[in-house]
Amino acid sequence: MVKHMKKTDEDLLLDVRGLEPPEPLERVLDMLAVLVPGQRIRMLIDRQPHPLYGILDKNNFRYQVDTLADYRYEILIWHKD
Predict the structure, then answer these.
(1) Total tally of structural domains belonging to the chain
(2) Quick check: 1 pLDDT over 60?
(3) pLDDT band at 70 (very low <50, low <70, confident <90, very high)
(4) 26 pLDDT exceeds 60?
(5) N or C end of the chain: which has fewer CB within 10 A?
(6) Which domain does 36 fall in, by range?
(7) E strands along 1-81, which residues?
(8) Is residue 3 domain-resident?
(9) What is the side-by-side strand order in the sheet with 12-15?
């Protein structure tokens, strides 16, 4: 379940590990719709979501991808300034 935080300085955690496509993409798109400037989404996923990167680029978002242990990924997403 997505928790909406009131403070804009806290990351929103989105753990979609183990979910089959297209559910991870659908969940992050829902969360992007409520993301306010100053917040970031910290997405945990077990595969590279390549279609997401194009969507982020086209919709004024920045992101950073870090590879974690066991070929899992952490993606930080935030609004461009």
Answers:
(1) 1
(2) no
(3) confident
(4) yes
(5) N
(6) 12-79
(7) 12-15, 40-45, 61-67, 73-79
(8) no
(9) 12-15, 40-45, 73-79, 61-67
| Contacts made by residues 47-50, CB under 8 angstroms, sequence distance 24+ | 47/73, 48/73, 49/24, 49/25, 49/75
| pTM of structure | 0.86
Q: How many CB atoms lie within 10 A of CB 49?
A: 20
Residue 36: give its domain's CATH number.
Answer: 3.30.110.40
Q: Which token pair is 77? A: 């997403």
- Check residue 5 and give its pLDDT: 38
pLDDT band at 9 (very low <50, low <70, confident <90, very high): low
**Residue 23 identity:** E
Residue type for 58, please?
K
